[in-house]
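Reopening this ticket.

The earlier resolution said the output was attached, but the attachment link was broken on my side. Pasting everything inline this time so it's all in one place.
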Amino acid sequence: MLSSSSSSSPFVYFLTLFFSLFLLFLFAPQILPLKKQRSPITVQDELDDLQLFHEATLASSRGFSKISHLGTTNPKPKIAFLFLTNSDLVFAPLWQRFFQGNDHLFNVYVHADPYSKLSTPQWSVKANFIPAKRTERGSPTLVSAARRLLANAIIDDPFNLYFALLSQHCIPLHSFPYIYTSLLGNPTAASKSFLTQRSHKSYIEILSNEPHLHNRYVARGEGVMLPEVSFQRFRVGSQFFVLAKRHALLVLKERKLWRKFRLPCLDLDSCYPEEHYFPTLLSMQDPRGCSHYTLTRVNWTDSVDGHPHTHHSPEVSPDLLHTLRKSNSSYSYFFARKFSPDCLKPLMAIANDVIFRD
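Inline output:
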């Protein structure tokens, strides 16, 4: 016959185990803090975006028909400048001076994170603040925001031919006429035939030999990206780019790869969809139509926590600006990041004599 003490042992063990699990649940987050999961894309946000992208595709078809049937008018192709931001656009005064006098050759669109408190810059040019959703670094939400900017720009103006994605920390390194002519030629010579041709090149960094490429590829788990994206076809690159309209439309129409790149990551330190999705997609779809290099200068030599070197006021000088322009590719750099807010005053002081004197 079992003693009362032995018969109660399972119950005691159960209570001990239950109490231990309770204490672990209660105190483990304080002892071993878990990594914060990055913001997911909700089903509703995804449906909203799909509708927007569909509208942009239809608008592009209507716009192409409109351009093709133009009479004696000679509209100019435009560059759409897309600002993706979660803080104040402190360099708005510098960009205003950059845009000054070229109203018929550009448009500005801003995706401002609605969860961040931003003060509206006093642009002297028309800036379109598009309906925005939450964004987070190293999250597919940044890809969605970039696509949202592309879609709104396509819907807004059929003459937007190039789309330059920038951050609030970017500055121009050249005058507007220099950048426009480099991409589109002399605006006085632009014609209807130029607007309708579909062979324009995109300027986006596409790398296949990045040191941590494999870690980035398996960040969602081994084999997760298959069969759509094999490791041999996976690419990385800069988050910021200048896309031709045909490639912007390709990005908006794409669904297959996006289903992979929007999946949650297990290794958050290696998962940056905004640096992976666009280079991989365009490398797979039209590698010859892309430059494989970016037009935005970034200094990664002394990066901190995944952020590039940030320039501060004492660094700003004519020599710095001339150095930032230098490139090993076909064009000198058009833009540069990352600059801290205290750089605005010294940049404005040398804007006319250095930045905008090409």
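Reporter confirms the inline version is readable. Strands lie at 78-85, 106-112, 127-129, 160-167, 171-172, 202-205, 242-244, 290-292, 296-298, 335-337. The radius of gyration is 25 Å.
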